[in-house]
Amino acid sequence: MRIIAIANQKGGCGKTTTAINLSACLAQLEKSVLLIDLDPQGHATLGLNIQPQELEKTMYNVLTPVSEKRLRLDEIIIPVSDNFDLAPANILLSAIEQELSGKPEREARLAQAISLMVGRTTYDYIIIDCSPSLGLLTFNGLRASHEIIAPVDTGFFSLHGISRLLETVNLFEKELNYSISVKALITVFDRRTKFAHEVKDEIYKYFSGKVFSPVIHNNVRLKEASSYGVPVVKYDKRSRGAQDYSALARELAGFRVVTENAGRGASAPETKMRRAVFAYYAPEAQNVEIAGDFNSWAASQGSKLEGNGDGLWKKEFNLEPGRYRYKFIVDGAWVMDPNNPNVEVDNSGNTNSLLELK
User: Fold this and answer.
1) DSSP assignments along 317-358, one per residue
2) What is the pTM of this model?
3) What is the DSSP letter of 217?
4) Could you read off the pLDDT of 117-163 as tens digits, one per residue?
């Protein structure tokens, strides 16, 4: 079970949008997911078309020290869709900091609640939508997590306050003597502006390259889906927002091509590799990468195409015979191969270019 906190105290960075849509996309990959709303505003709850003010059982009941009000985590869970559950929140959660004042191990309440639930209910992923402030609730989310995703938008104040989050993580690591992985996710990206690209470069430098390959583009469908209380993959599975979050889920889940042996105990015959040349014409592009089944859908240094100065970008791979879905990533935007008419729609409804090697 992987426990991942989505945290950043800056508003407008897509924190709750990421929590909802990443959870939904992981669920579509047949991963069981619990989304924990740890924000008294209840935005993750509201974003799934559940009215926070009407709820009687919420995360407040899980964290409160008042015994007659306390419930187990598995007692407040609301099913959202197949493989996707929610632990909701509302304004009552704002009282927790005062109720836990002076209590021992108050930062560990959520971690303890998750541990107690594991014997009854287990998930592949627990996603925690942290409060947008570095207070006790966020401390609980960080303390319970193995990994942190920090959504960072490409606005002027994008990195403001991130240093405090990283300082808090470092403090937890020293006190608890274990390592918490922190990785940035670039959100609300407008590839049309030079400024967005400059901020994107600064984010890569700030996080020393620990940044997810998929970039979440500024997309009206994401906002529309939120207003209707549904994940974007349910609202418009072919939209840019759905494709971006589906790519993030695949990268997080570590999807890769698995070749089955011919038979139990049989040695695989020697396979002759095939040379595949990928090319994309983009004279104004600053960076072109490729991601697909052959590299686990993870853009990296080895996936960059080389430009020849005339606008043509190329990359060669040696691949085994088979079918490979792929897309180009042009300055952060995921695009189809315009020179390849062969396409395939995956289980999430995303259309990808398809290469067949015989």
Assistant:
1) EEE-SEEEEEEEEETTEEE--TT---EEE-TTS-EEEEEEE-
2) 0.69
3) B
4) 877 788 999 999 998 887 899 989 988 988 999 998 887 666 776 77
